[in-house]
Known about the structure:
- By secondary structure, this protein is an alpha/beta fold.
- It has a single domain, classed as CBS-domain (Roll).
- It contains five helices and six strands, in the order βαββααβαββα.
- It has helices at 21-31, 50-58, 69-72, 86-95, 115-140, and strands at residues 14-15, 35-40, 43-49, 80-81, 100-105, 108-114.
- A hairpin with a 2-residue loop joins strand 2 (35-40) and strand 3 (43-49).
- The longest helix is centred in the last third of the chain and has 26 residues, at 115-140.
- The chain starts with 13 loop residues before the first strand and ends in a 15-residue tail after the last helix.
Amino acid sequence: MAVIGSLMKTNMITVAPTATVEHATRSMARNEVGAVLVVEGDILRGILSERDVVSRVVAEGKPPGETEVSDVATTDLVTVDEEAHVRECAQLLRDNAIRHLPVTRHGKPVGILSSRDFQAYIVEGLERIIDQERYEKAIDEGYDPYDHLGGSYGR
Length: 155
């Protein structure tokens, strides 16, 4: 059974709690991510997502260059251990209506899993299963769909 450690992003982007929202969002844009982990030393303090920026900074008229990340980041965190199974992550993403899931090892942050990356992983797996089923059906019907040279293996 697949575990999250095999599909998470390990190059997590982090900011200090005292960083400004402007600094954090520039980092998000530069790294093309929708969230950054708020880390102090090796302790996960929160997560700042695009949703947090829109609802707690922009909508409230706070200046991004003067607002500290710790004032607007989500601190009531849902995390998952890197050894968690895919099913557990699916349930956490769905049940908590979140798009970014910090991944931990012994309680310390080691990566992040986005719902987009999770969905891509699931779709890839489904495509492999479908392709395998199609291949096996073709073999059962007497032809090899990968035999493009017409050799037919002696048939």
